[in-house]
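Q: I have two molecules that I believe assemble together. Could you output structure tokens for the complex as a whole instead of separate predictions?
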Amino acid sequence: MMHFLLLFSRQGKLRLQKWFLPLPERERKKIVKDMTTMVLARKPRTCNFLHWKDLKIVYKRYASLYFCCGLESQDNELLALEILHRYVELLDKYFGNVCELDIIFNFEKAYFILDEFLMGGEIQETSKQSIAKSVEASDMLQETMEEYMSKPAF
Amino acid sequence: MENVCNLGVNGNNSLLSYITHILHPAFMLDKDNKTCPELCYILGLESILVKVRLNRRGGADELGSEQPVAGFGDWNYCAAKDKVMTPSVRLQEMIRVIRSARTQGEERGIIQRECADIRAQFRQGDNGERSHSLAKLLYVHMLGYPAHFGQMECVRLIASPRYSEKRIGYLGAMMLLDEKQDASLLITNSIKNDLSHSSQYVQSLALCTLACMGSAEMCRDLAPEIERLLRASNSYIKKKATLCAVHIIRKVPELAELFTPTARSLLSEKNHGVLHGAVVLITELCERNPDTLNQFRKAVPELVQIMKGLVTSSYSPEHNVAGISDPFLQVRILRLLRILGHNNETASDAMNDLLAQVATNTDSSKTAGSAVLYETVLTIMDINSESGLRVLAVNILGRFLLNNDRNIRYISMTSLQKIVQTDHNAVQRHRGTIVDCLKDQDTSVKRRALELSLALVSAVNIRSMMKELLIFLSTCPPELRSQTASGIFNAAERYSPSKRWHIDTILHVLTTAGGDVRDETVPNLIQLITTASELHCYTVHKLYRALVKDISQQSLVQVACWCIGEYGDLLLKGECEEIEPVQVTEDDVLDALETVLQSHMSSPATRGFALTSTMKLSTRITDNVDRIRSIVSIYGSCIDLELQQRAVEYNALFKKYDHMRAAVLERMPVMDKNSPGHTNGDTSGEIKEPDPSKPKPVEAGLLAEPASQVCDLLDLLGGTDTPIQPNPAPASTATTTSSADLLDLLGGLEPTPVLQTVTVTVYEKNGLSLKIQCDKQTETEVTVTLISSNSTQTDITNFNLQAAVPKSVQLQMKAPSGNVIPAHGLGQVTQTVLLNNPNKVSLKMRIRVSYSNQGAVHQDTVQIDSFPSPASQPSISPL
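A: Yes, here they are, computed for all two components at once.
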């Protein structure tokens, strides 16, 4: 089971945090701090796995953004790399050539996509198409209404 | 969506047709579900919205004339309310402004303003902007600013009938609430309602939130709903419900039974999402309950079939990842098979062929393939697989070890670590490659290689492996140094070919990484040095040289000081065969010690070592005793209390007790590693079996002696006064009273041992009587002697005592004096128990007595709540 997924920039700015275990705010902040310092200190072309307390940390850098997750000891690190990659693919498909700014300005969308992909720290859907379809349908449900509301009365 | 808005102007009918037109593909085609709630959901809502707007244009503000679409009464209401809208800065604009801040202070200012705005918005209540405000707050929260004031807003938004508000509300709940807050209780009902909502997307939000932050209470309340959804026909909901069930079981394990029957049927599902969820759910169920595990072993053929289907299926673009068909699902199935096949022959047999097939046919050139292969190897090593298959698995790991990708090498070593105990020789074959990985640039890889290398050290390869490990120690990153050092110490202790080699190795570690070794290293090494008496000269020379070279490694300096103090005479003699002789003068040695004493790098403990060492030298050298005298007197006014005390004592030794100095400063006797100072009482709190094979330690015998003397006398007395007592009760009174008398008698003869001990009978049954004696050694240490005697007519055999004490107390049971108690009170069994009570809690002890008498086996437990102490029991005291 994945315990958390963090996205942060090269400067250590948090861009997305998903916690699959209930942790007090202070502890979350501590983990975020530990993860950013640990991962950012890594040299390029080193391996993508780290050990932290009793968790396996798997991280990967995509352009300016680091994707980092904490796994339990039975979890498969290589598969976690695939999970991170799949998430990037999903973001890429949704935003069209995704960049850090897309995730900053549409962070809630990034969460919505993640919630269709992972749930309770496990993968919920292994097909990219299905995820894209359900995110699109949910968006449509939201937008049709919002657009109407933001239109001035006539 | 722009089109849809433009259409609003055209009126109701065209909008309807348009929405039907554009939404059709999204909602109707991919499901053959004829009633499509989403469509109604939007259509119903939108038509009302248009109606409201049209009305407003026409000036008719009342909605009453329009008949709302059946079942959407509340939608109508909120749409009407949306007419009042306060403009506020949009989310993205706020983000832009925050990002434009040049300093932290500026950013803080902007955020404070925004938060004030957001609070105001929340207070205003339902105005259609709430979801934007909450979204803004979530951004602020991500930047690390407090956002707890949004918690109630999440609760309110979740209860909103609008999807857009619900969506943000649930997102906020997952980020801002944790299960301890009361607010999370408030959303339970909303989640419950949403779980049976007509729209699957609303249901999905509720499921997702439950799986993310559902507390145990929430899980208990909602478990039946989830179980119902597991049997839904909609696979989109079903896959989410399975993962919800997994979360519920993790939170409330006793709810597992509720999901067990449905879980099995989910395996026949075709949808990969549901199938994956089902496998995760079954894994969770099996890991928690051995009965369920047995039950699901019957599903092995089914799982093998699914896996075979994945491996042999033709290319399917939907699930293909780098040529592997759904690696996510494959890995989870392999993991479940591992649990099912563990220690079970039948289940293992059923999956052998499949595992062989996956292991040989999976292409490992990409990560996805390697992930599947890695999982396969783990499964093969963990089940009762055929030996050929195990060889194949180890070879795959060997191949991984040579891979260019560091990740794969890392994985390979992690797995080899797991099997190094069971398949030691197979792993040993890859030793060369593993040792090479010690030289890798990557700390993660180094760490794995180090762990594995340490596990591979054996008596055969100790010399070559140690050479590598010592090189590694000198170059390794600081965070690995202490692990390496203690690993080397352990290996050296287990496999050292000679004492000299052992000492050399430890000294080497101390010179390279003296700051990173654990505290017990120093006493351990000193103990080792004292036992190697033929090496004293060699060791002291070597340490002296190391000390002259470098005084920054504290542990090394401490050992060096100790040895110079003890074996200073050998150092000054300068005759050493093994080492190139160097003439060391007395002044040189004292200079070195004085440097240590004065150096700012020396810790207080090190200075203590150095001062004592200087003092010890006063009997080992001839000319410079006055210099030592002055050094010692200087530290008599040292600011460090410990050092000062030592110096004052040594000074007194010089002045008042000079005649005793030589005797006091004698060489230390050889230390015994198993003396009480070295053992740690880690077994405290549990009943400890006395080990009869262990010879009785000397000090226990000494302690027990005075007690048994007294009792021997008691027995003699018992024999004369009351010949044979068939009735045990009077016997006990006789003993206690007579013991008091006797103590009086003894008091005149031999007062010391008796003064400290008091005897109390704690157990009296079937002719067996058990007495305890307490002897307080120090404030924290108590010696308890258990004395058992037998007043029946037959011998008591298989006599055994077990003792338990509170957790904070350390207990050490010495061996009993025997396990047979002779009949008629003619002998007794004593057993000494040492208690260490560092926290000074009130002492309690529970003793379990078991013995056989006349063919019957007895067992009893006695609880001793207060221990007799000489002070509290004046009545028994002798004078």
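A: One point stands out. The longest strand of chain A covers residues 2-9.
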